[in-house]
Amino acid sequence: MKTEFSSSFNQTDPPPLKALPSKNLAKLVWVMVSPYKKWLLIIFFAMLLETVMSLATPWPLKIIIDNVIGHHKLPHWLAWMDAVFPGENKVQFAAVAAISLMLMAAIGSFAGYMNNYFTESVAQYVSNDLRRQIYHHLQRLSLEYYNTHQTGNLLSTITTDVSTIQDFAASTLMSIIVDSLTIVGMLGIMFFLHVGFTLVAIGVTPFLLLFVMRFKKVMKKATREVRKDQSNMLAVLQQGLESIRAVNAFGRQELEEDRLKKASLETVGAALKARRVKSVLSPVIAITVSVCTALVLFQGTNLVLKGAMTVGTLTVFLWYMNKFFSPVQDLAKMTSNIAQATIALERIQAILDTAIIVAEKPNAVDPGRLTGNITFDSVSFAYNPLSPVLKDISIHINSGQRVGICGPTGGGKSTIVSLIARFYDPTGGRVLIDGKDITDFTLDGLRAQIGFVLQDTVLFYGPVRDNIAYGRPEATEEEIIEAAKLANAHEFISKMPHGYETLVGEHGLTLSGGQRQRIGIARAVVRNSPILILDEPTASLDPEAEKIVMEALEQLMVGRTVITIAHRLSTICDCDKIIVLHDGYVAEEGTHDELMDKGEIYAELCHIQSSVKHSMQKIIS
């Protein structure tokens, strides 16, 4: 059964979720569970059967009390049993009642198993769909979103908040349905047994529900504070663990522990406040229920003594009344779960409702293999409208040309390459490749034409071969090895304990800076993109490592359009063209010799770096 069920839910893509208002919890849950309608049908019938068995449970007891021990006649709908079990065989009659009780318990238990198993299974797949939907959305948000949102808070939403929705779908929602069915069924039977006592129970219920509704608002506010503090605590933990080397290097362990202590205590305080609010609910409901039960017990005893009611009927009615208030109590207690799920939904919706700033056009096309002619046509850009980074930039880069971009810090160098890959879109003007506006291309198709070698190559935990093939997972073993050879990386990889299967530590911390860069170059070789962007690829390397990396880059750059961002100007002096950015404008443009002859910004930067280098050499010597 388990294998069949799992295979039925094996999906390639999560079902799309429509943007819904944060308050519409039930509607979102329905959107998420609707792909699993056939299993929901099984769950519904299991719940219905479980409810019927629960409602029927006290009747064998009533029959034994009134018709076996007592001398009352059977109800008219059970009169047929007198013919099967004559009055003198009451022991057999009691045996049938006992067996019926066991059968009801067995059927109810089986229905409960079906309900619980399939409900939990659906909930697991729903949470899987929701997690993937959120992650899919996050992967396609502009990088600007991550400039203002902590990763720890996003992780908290993907894990804890999704788990809260899962628990709601698995238990709370189903419990609400079961309890609602039980209440309706019990009211019908209670009216059949005694109208007056039933009206007492019904009369109290609106006051309980009114109290619960007022309680829900307070609980929701307290829950929101708890989730906020929990997210902050996770963000502190994540930041501390990710920066563990810097923490140890500066001996700031106590500072990080104090940060966690503060965040943790805030979480504890918020959780206790929420618990204090929640703890008020049960005593109020318990006292109200006990008053109603005591009233029915007292009046019912009088009716039994007067002969107006049988002992069995009173016993069954008290059982139903207790069970009637039990789901009412459960529904009241579920306000806490509903509040938690609502807050979780608000946090999830905050992500899903975020606009994808870099969006594809409906008719976007795959560009295919590009030649690499790049044009910036009067491009402007600003992260903040009040502080433009690029101002009316017009640049043309020919296919196969090597272009260096330099200038003072904050001039917009990294922004230029971010616009080419559409990590951001210009606020004015256009970027064209091979004469076509890059917004006409699909994002994946465009970025497949661009290779990156960054200042700090990001490596992932896993084998070396997987890190090299990250940009093109279908690469063969031969292609990976050849790329490593071109990147001058094959020799040191071969000396590793398991060669290309050697596991790389998180962020590549088990490798030297030069080794990481060479793996990054091999990654770009495997990708084989016509446009290559080098963002300070040797800035953090020592001279020996820089020499090895530059030799590898020379091989990589052959036949490609290459854009190099540089602070170390020696790495771009051989470029076909150098562009100098200053205050968001193209201040100078030309070859190294032409710019040196002009004697302006570029020449000044070269003189400064030469002086600094000379001073450092004197200090070292």
What features would you describe in this structure?
With 621 residues, the protein is an alpha/beta fold. It has helices at 2-8, 25-33, 37-56, 59-69, 81-84, 90-139, 143-146, 151-193, 195-242, 244-249, 253-279, 281-306, 311-352, 413-420, 443-447, 464-468, 477-486, 490-494, 513-527, 543-557, 592-598, 601-620, and strands spanning 374-381, 390-397, 402-406, 428-433, 436-437, 450-453, 462-463, 503-504, 531-535, 561-565, 577-582, 585-590. It is built from 22 helices and twelve strands. The relative contact order is 0.08.
What is the distance, rounded to the nearest whole angstrom, between the alpha carbons of the first and last residues? 77 Å
**Dominant shape:** elongated
Average of the residue pLDDT scores? 78
- What portion of residues belong to β-strands? 5-15%
Adjacency order of strands in the biggest sheet: 6-9-10-3-11-12
Would you identify the regions where 5 or more consecutive residues have pLDDT less than 50?
Answer: 1-23
Class computed from helices, strands and strand pairing: alpha/beta
Number of strands: 12
The tally of helices reads: 22
Described by strand count, sense and barrel closure, the largest sheet is: 6 strands, mixed
CA-atom Rg in angstroms: 36 Å
The share of residues in helices is 55-70%
Please state the oligomeric state of the protein chains shown.
single chain
